[in-house]
Amino acid sequence: MSEAQDIIGPTSSFFVSQRLRMHYVDWGNEGAPNVILVHGGKDHARNWDHVARVLRKDYRVIAPDLRGHGDSAWAVGGNYAIWDFVLDLAQLVEALGGEPVMLVGHSLGGAVTLHYAGTFPERVSKLVAIEGMGPPPQMQEQMEKTPAHERIASWVRSMQGLAARTPRRYADIDEAASRMQEANPHLSSEQARHLTVHGVARNEDGTFSWKFDNYVRAFAPARFRAEDTRGLWSRITCPVMLMRGTESWARDPEKDGRMAAFQDASLVNIEKAGHWVHHDQLDPFLSHLLPFLGGDAPPRG
Fold this sequence. Notes:
CATH class: Alpha Beta
Number of domains: 1
CATH architecture: 3-Layer(aba) Sandwich
CATH topology: Rossmann fold
Strand order of the largest sheet: 1-2-4-3-5-6-9-10
C-alpha cells in the first residue's frame, strides 16, 4: 500500500437488518481476509480507526455501527437485546459474501461476537474479545435469582425514565471531548477529540449531541442464563483470544472459571489499561493482536 493510499480513510456502506438501515465503514483491500471490528455500547465504528489503519495493510477491515449507534438506524420501540445485535452481525457477514471472517469485539461488541461465533462456529476463523464476557459469575448468579416480575418492573421504570431524558447538548466539540476524556482518563486529548468528532451529531441550534440512542442504556428483562452463555462459548471452534485491562472493572476469566468453557482460548492481561484496552494501550494491544491474526507485530519505541 502506498503512502497516499495509507492516509485515505474508509468508505461508508449500508446493509439492511430487520428493516433497519445499518451502516459500516470499509477500509478497502478487497480480496484480503475479512476482519470485522465490533464496537461497544454507546460507541461507534470509527473508534477502531487507529487499529484499522494498521490492519488494512494485510486485511479487508470492516467496522459496523451497531443498531442505535453511530450512523445506523435506531430500533423502533427502543429495544436492544443481544440477539438483535447478533442478527445484525449475521446480516453483515452475509452481505460480505458469507465466507468465514475474523472478529474483534470490545465490551458489548465482544459479547456479540462471542454469541455469534457460538451460534455459527463455521463462520468464524479467529476471534478476539476485549472485555466482552459480561458480568462475573457472582453478579450473574444474583441477577438470575431476581424474579421475572422484578426484572420487568425495573425495565419498565428504566424505559420510562429514558423516555423523559433529554439528550445532553454540548456547546462545541471541545466540550463534548472533555466529557469523553472525563469518562476515560486514559485517553489523550487527540484520541478524545477523534472519538468525539465521529461520535456526535450537530443539532439545528449549533450544539452537539451523542449519536447513540438513549434507549441503548436499558437492559432487556429477558437474558441468557450463565449456563446458556457458557454453552454458546463451548461451541466456538476457532482460536479465541480474551483480553482485559488490569485497571478495568472486568474480572479475570481464568481465575473465576469462565475461560474453561472454551475449546481453544488464551488470555491476555494488558497492564496500565482500563476497559478500553485498544485506546489505553494501543501498541501493546497490537503486539498481541497482529500475531494472533497472522500478521507481524508493529515496531516498538
